[in-house]
């Protein structure tokens, strides 16, 4: 039987698909194509929570990006409405992420409290006299202030209900990664530098804090780099697309987060889209 030589285009397509290595562990979870959309925000949260990648040497409880929920529940207004209800009912907390974009992470309240407990155990051998502030924070601040940010004065007042607060207490919460200074992106200053050039710098608002997820720094770096790597991979392909099933099995080199995590994120943010074909779902780069 005569063998038809492989065309140069086919060889290039095959090389592109092989360029990103396959993931070593996809677990027993359903393929993304079979678990991409849901009708209920809480169901979507629980599924994505269960599918959060296992990452060595990073002690962060599972979280879900708002963009990932947008990829799975078609009605974004429904997502926002149901998240607000769950937030008010203290089922979860919403965090503004320091990625330079409008990213928000959602973490179940039980997981966040567990994260705080982990911080307390880590700090026990260092700041014995100031450790009570973590319990004050957990019992009086977290349960009272459900928004993503808090004013310095309100934080001080809530902590003062159970103890005498000092600046060292606030610094300890910041150093533990539970609070982050709020950068006022609307207020900038022009700084004159030598030789007579101007630089724009953002100002930090000392009167406001974001609530933060401890130990998330390396994951935020991976999130940004993984987005770029995945988009670059798709953009290099001839039609800027790839079947979802084989793409999901690939492993990104620059991110500890798995392909499933990044695909949900980029679909929800609108950077890529899925198209139904007779062969299955295709992931395409969205046109500008």
Describe the structure.
- By secondary structure, the protein is an alpha+beta fold.
- Helix content is 42%, strand content 21%.
- It is built from eleven helices and nine strands.
- It has helices at 8-19, 41-50, 66-72, 76-88, 109-123, 132-141, 152-160, 167-175, 217-235, 244-248, 259-269, and strands at 64-65, 92-96, 104-108, 149-151, 179-193, 197-211, 241-243, 272-277, 280-285.
- Strand 8 (272-277) and strand 9 (280-285) form a beta hairpin.
- Helix 3 crosses helix 11 (259-269) and helix 9 (217-235) crosses helix 11 (259-269).
What would you say about this model in short?
The protein is of the alpha+beta class and 288 residues long.
């Amino acid at each position: 039987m005569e063998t038809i030589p492989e065309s140069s285009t086919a060889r290039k397509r095959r090389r592109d698909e092989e360029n990103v290595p396959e993931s070593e562990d996809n677990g027993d979870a359903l393929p993304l194509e079979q678990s991409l959309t849901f009708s209920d925000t809480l169901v979507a949260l629980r599924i994505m929570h269960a599918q959060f990648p296992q990452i060595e040497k990073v002690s962060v409880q599972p979280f879900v990006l708002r963009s990932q929920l947008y990829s799975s529940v078609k009605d974004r207004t429904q997502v926002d409405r149901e998240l607000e209800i769950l937030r008010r009912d203290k089922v979860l907390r919403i965090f503004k992420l320091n990625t330079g974009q409008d990213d928000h992470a959602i973490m179940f309240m039980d997981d966040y409290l567990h994260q705080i407990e982990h911080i307390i155990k880590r700090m026990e051998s260092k700041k014995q006299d100031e450790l009570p502030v973590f319990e004050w924070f957990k019992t009086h601040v977290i349960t009272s202030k459900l928004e993503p940010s808090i004013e310095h004065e309100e934080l001080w007042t809530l902590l003062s209900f159970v103890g005498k607060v000092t600046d060292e207490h606030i610094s300890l919460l910041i150093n533990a990664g539970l609070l982050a200074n709020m950068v006022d992106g609307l207020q900038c200053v022009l700084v004159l530098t030598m030789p007579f050039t101007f630089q724009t710098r953002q100002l930090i608002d000392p009167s406001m804090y974001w609530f933060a997820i401890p130990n998330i720094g390396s994951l935020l770096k991976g999130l940004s780099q993984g987005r770029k790597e995945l988009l670059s991979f798709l953009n290099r392909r001839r039609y800027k697309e790839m079947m979802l099933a084989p793409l999901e099995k690939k492993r990104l080199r620059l991110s500890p987060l798995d392909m499933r995590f990044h695909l949900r994120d980029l679909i929800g943010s609108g950077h890529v889209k899925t198209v139904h074909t007779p062969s299955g779902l295709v992931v395409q780069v969205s046109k500008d």
